[in-house]
Amino acid sequence: MSKQSSEIVDTAIWRFSVISGLLHQDANDGSMGELLHELAQKSWCRPDGKRIHLSNETIRKWLYRFRKGGLPALADQERSDSG
What we know:
3 helices; mainly alpha
């Protein structure tokens, strides 16, 4: 596997780790909005080691992409506005 392919897989798996708790939520866990807010309040360490904060919207989009396309859908997507 090339370095680029490895980075793509690492990113997809890392994003899955962020949303995994949302996939297996219990009725007692609270609303989706509350859970998204809790996740957005955390500091996350990306695969490259950089610490970041994620927005509720980013996490929600990753969850939607995973539900529609599985783990491959969590890999970086080509920007639609790039020339």
